[in-house]
TrEMBL record:
<protein>
    <recommendedName>
        <fullName>Translation initiation factor IF-2</fullName>
    </recommendedName>
</protein>
<comment type="similarity">
    <text>Belongs to the TRAFAC class translation factor GTPase superfamily. Classic translation factor GTPase family. IF-2 subfamily.</text>
</comment>
<feature type="domain" description="Tr-type G">
    <location>
        <begin position="76"/>
        <end position="246"/>
    </location>
</feature>
<feature type="binding site">
    <location>
        <begin position="85"/>
        <end position="92"/>
    </location>
    <ligand>
        <name>GTP</name>
    </ligand>
</feature>
<comment type="function">
    <text>One of the essential components for the initiation of protein synthesis. Protects formylmethionyl-tRNA from spontaneous hydrolysis and promotes its binding to the 30S ribosomal subunits. Also involved in the hydrolysis of GTP during the formation of the 70S ribosomal complex.</text>
</comment>
<feature type="binding site">
    <location>
        <begin position="186"/>
        <end position="189"/>
    </location>
    <ligand>
        <name>GTP</name>
    </ligand>
</feature>
<feature type="binding site">
    <location>
        <begin position="132"/>
        <end position="136"/>
    </location>
    <ligand>
        <name>GTP</name>
    </ligand>
</feature>
Length: 371
């Protein structure tokens, strides 16, 4: 089989064809610019430049067939929100406040479990799902894996501080991902709070707030005292309405979601939080998730309460994985265990091949050094 030429491969990786040719030469292969390279060469060269070659035909075999949603099954769903901001600007305090006020207002207690995401209910049966992942890492890690789960970013900036490096980073990440930002200027209860200064600095960072004629909604809050939080939630919901976020709520389609986090529990085995994005996930469903598979043994909400099913935008703790998935892995319900196993096995084979190539490269390297 023939694949890309040295020139095409160079373009894909943003290097010069000369670099490709030179590298092939060090591997003992003499190639010209328009010569088609074989698979192994492409893989080795890609790795050398920090890329992992993906061969579509091979990957296709492991892709879960993506079904078209019927228009009438698409219904408005709760937005998925990530809170970002500089260290100590009050991200955790904001989440804690929203969560605790929701628990008080909502159902009966139970010990709150950390499942990396949770759903809050507001007046009028409106909901917001929060991803409770530490800072930007999770967001960027998921994005790097091609998973876009966040619909809206709440950018927390402390009114007694300034726009800081991580504030800028959060703005850049959100913009790159084309995720809308709602600004929360926090700690306005502090005497030294200066929200106007923050707005000025934000405008310099490319975020012009609405009351200054910009496109970004902004709310002054105190995560400590609860000031402005209801208004902030309203602004998030307004942003969500503008986007018309929808999902397939049919009970007939196989559920699909994204792994938010996963860990190995001594007693329970793999415990993973899945954010459902389509359909309803049910106990007993066979599934494939990244390189692993399983069958849903139990579903739990963030209070550890067993639930029978979970629908779109609902985060749920899932038991029944054979192995540990990675955050950002897609999670898809399959028709049978057999089908799930087939796909998981194919993916494992491909992964092993990649690892094998990597070790070959190391050997080639050391041989080259010996020479
Ligand atoms: P990291 O997770 O370390 O990045 O910090 P964070 O952004 O989660 O900040 P956190 O919520 O931990 O708050 C940092 C400090 O600011 C804590 O001492 C909070 O009590 C305090 N704080 C947060 N919000 C407010 C507020 O609205 N007013 C006042 N006065 N203090 C606040
Ligand atoms: Mg925190």
């Amino acid at each position: 089989t023939e694949f890309a030429t040295a020139h095409e491969l160079a373009d894909l990786m943003g290097v010069t064809p000369k670099e490709i040719i030179q590298h092939c030469f060090t591997m003992g292969k003499f190639v010209t610019i328009n010569q088609r390279l074989d698979k192994e060469t492409i893989e080795l060269v890609s790795l050398e430049f920090g890329f992992e070659a993906e061969f579509v035909s091979e990957v296709e075999a492991t892709e879960v067939v993506e079904l078209e949603d019927n228009e009438e099954d698409l219904v408005i769903r709760p937005p998925v929100v990530t809170i970002m901001g500089h260290v100590d600007h009050g991200k955790t305090s904001l989440l804690d406040y929203i969560r605790s006020s929701n628990v008080v207002a909502g159902e009966s207690g139970g010990i709150t479990q950390h499942i990396g995401a949770y759903e809050v209910s507001l007046d009028g049966d409106r909901k917001i799902t929060f991803l409770d992942t530490p800072g930007h890492e999770a967001f960027t890690a998921m994005r790097a894996r091609g998973a876009q789960v966040t619909d809206i970013v709440i950018l927390v900036v402390s009114a007694d501080d300034s726009v800081m490096p991580q504030t800028i980073e959060a703005i850049n990440h959100s913009k790159a991902a084309e995720v809308p930002i709602v600004v929360a200027i926090n700690k306005i209860d502090k005497p030294e709070a200066n929200p106007e200064k923050i707005k000025t600095q934000l405008s310099e960072a490319g975020v012009l707030v609405e009351d200054w004629g910009g496109e970004y909604q902004c709310q002054e809050i105190s995560a400590k005292q609860g000031t402005g939080i209801d208004e902030l939630m309203e602004k998030v919901l307004t942003e969500a309405e503008i986007r018309e976020l929808k999902a397939n709520f049919s009970r007939e389609v196989p559920a699909r979601g994204i792994i938010v986090e996963a860990e190995l529990d001594k007693g329970k085995g793999v415990v993973s939080t899945v954010l459902v994005q389509r359909g309803f996930l049910k106990v007993g469903d066979p599934f494939v998730a990244g390189h692993t598979m399983g069958r849903v043994r139990a579903l739990m909400d963030e209070r550890g309460k067993r639930i029978r099913e979970a629908g779109p935008s609902q985060p749920v703790s899932v038991l029944g994985f054979e192995d540990l998935p990675q955050s950002g892995d897609e999670f898809t319900v399959m028709l049978s265990d057999k089908e799930a196993r087939e796909i998981a096995q194919k993916r494992q084979i491909i992964r092993r091949e990649h690892e094998f190539r990597r070790s070959t490269r190391v050997k080639l390297d050391s041989i080259a050094r010996q020479i």
